[in-house]
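Loading example: each entry is read as two labelled lines plus one structure line.
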Amino acid sequence: MIKPEREVRTICPYCGVGCSLFLHIKDDRIVRVTGDFEGAANHGNLCVKGRFGIDFVHAPDRLLAPLIRRDGKLIAADWDTALTEVVQRMAAIRREHGPESIAFLTSAKCTNEENYLLQKIARGVIGSSHVDHCARL
Amino acid sequence: MLKAERTVLTTCPYCGVGCGLNLHVRQNNLVRVTGDFDSPVNRGNLCVKGRFGYDFIYHPARITTPLIRREIGNREPPPAGADARSLFREATWDEALDLVADRLAVIRAESGPDALACFACAKATNEDNYLMQKLFRQIVGTNNVDHCTRLCHAASVVALQQAIGSSAMSNAASEVVESDVFIVTGSNTAETHPIIALQMKQGVHSRGAKLIVVDPRRVEMVEHAALWLQQRPGTDVPVFSAMAHVILEEGLANREFIARRTEAFDEFAASMKAFTPEYAERISGVPAEKIRQAARMFATAKNAAIYWALGIPEHTHGVDNALSLVNLGLLCGHVGRVGTGLNPLRGQNNVQGASDAGAMPWHYPGYQAADDPQVQAKFAEAWGFAPPARRGLTTPEIVGAAGRGEVRALFVMGENPMMSEPNLNHTAECMAKLEFLIVQDLFINETGALADVILPASAWAEKDGTFTNTDRRVQRVRKAVEPPGQARSDWEIIADLAGRLAGRVGRDVHSAPHAGWSYKHPGEILSEMGELVPEYRGVTYDRLEQDGLQWPVTDETHPGTPFLFADTFPRGRAKFHPLQYRPALEKADAEYPFILTTGRVLYHWHGGTMTRHSKLDEVYPEALIEVNPADGGRLGVRDGDPVRVTSRRGTLVVRAHITERVGEGVVFMAFHFVEAAANLLTSDALDPQAKIPGYKVSAVRVEAAPGMLLETEHFAAATSAIESRTRRT
């Protein structure tokens, strides 16, 4: 069995139970996940997704760069190009059709911090109250 | 959750897989067990017994002082309502061991050494077992030493010794992922060797291997199988011989291997002519076409292996059953390479090691024949004394001899024959005739309740030593916590007794290089065993720190041997054996129309001394008898109804579980539960060569028993424990 270099304590990304996990890391890869016996939610137990369902992180078809659709095809771009494109398009649409013409879907799989920021962009920067996520469903 | 102060790496005390465990310890308490990710055996995985079944060591019924029966020799059960403990008084170690030494010496003086016998223990360490057989051979002077291997793989051992000259698994269990095809027969692997079963499933699902299950029950492994051959209990020889017939007829045999590595082929091939698949179908119920498919699949595989457990040896023709598998492996040359092999899955954590250590009446340590005068001379030279060069009695023979008054005193270390022997009513009658019975264990179990002296032993987490797992891997057992009260390690108790007994029988413990008993640490015992057993010569504690070593390990630099027979067999050429079909001695008839077959469940262990003192017992608290729905309909028995089950030897009441896991005409019970002890029903008829009882075939009558009330919540728990593991059938 591969010997990890270090262990990182974190929270499971799957369901709402919120099991505490140890990610065992070697060469910047997650080689194993174990349950945290100090975890208030799981007391060391894990389900099969928490214990074994981490390999998607290292999947070969992960998105590795921003993509922009040009002539119907998604083309890799750098962050500056991609974010500039997003900002210019949003600004134009807001000018032409007003703030309420732009909507945001945030994510129940992202952190509190990420969700807070996206709704802050929607409300504070764009001025739109059209912010929702899969809690609705 | 309690924070552990330290963790101790050790080896699981349950099955023969030998998983690496980390014991988490806080203030001399075992607070948790986790799997060892660095173990080459389990790679961090554990089954429910290994992970949660350690709590028996803290059960309040543990015995913590030596106990002496108030009325020695009176084997009456305790009065109604009283606990077995009331039959005993507490004693000091000096008083108890002096009493044992006195009585053994007197009986030995009156009736000779062969009036004494012992059951060593497949749950104890190699060191414990080596010392137990040394005590009885060197000090007492008898070969009457056996243990539960007799009730387990004795017939596999005889068959493999005859055909090959070595009786352990030929290949490492983890090699199953390298097989293209593998046969699993007579093994409920997912429940009885769960971590090997994981690797089998990995072979099927990740590597595309084809699994052939040959079993009378729809065991969990059937869900992963390409082919399932459901034979009637006791008809293994026709099924496997018909496979050989097809392989010969269709020219699929490995002629090059047969010519180069085997002998006695022609006689064997001639005997296979009669085993047409149609003939086998009539006897076994397995469709001829399935036998043909299995034969072609096995023969044409690049690498194919055979795994078997007790469904093969526990028959009155158990040796023939095992030989039919050996023949098949040799016929296709599926031996001597990675991913092949003849692999008997050993049941107990250390049944391999106890056998290696010589806890058997026909063999000194290292399978050296007890009836060979040269071997006897070798051990006499090492120990200063060895018993006459003749075989001792096997466990069923010891029980029978006790019944006839020929064996007068019996020492039982850690086994529970009053649950595990066949035909328990007869066993009880025989045990009652013993003049002196010594039991060394953790609890007063069904056997301990009959004892004159009970010696409190240490559990696996409380002592140092080694276990040898099913694929010959010798691994360390490490002390993590102190034993309770005055309990001591088995090896320490035996060594103490040996010193006391040696003086009384006039044996000089300084007369030869290994005559002595002054061991300071079990490592010294393993070193002594290594001096006498070539396969263990290079096994020392300092080399076992992490992964263990797979024997043979012939010297201090030898790396161990993951698979055997690459170039040659221990007997030179492997030998084919001609076979004919012999039906089981036990037969169904109008009065006893069902065939009862027995086995284990995931949550329990054998006679129950450990798991029935664990929280595992709450998960699966009650015995069940599996009955096919068609039979249930005819008997008027629904799921959960109590039934009376009666054989020619005994009767009991148990709740029926209606399930298609068993075929029509077949019923199944596990043997863990004293409340419905399956071995009341089983037959003590033996295989003539191996002396193993035919546990797997007992004729019984099953009748509805509506008046009998049993705990309903127990039934709900036990059936849900089964159903959670298998699809609803």
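Chain A touches chain B through nine residues (CB under 8 Å).
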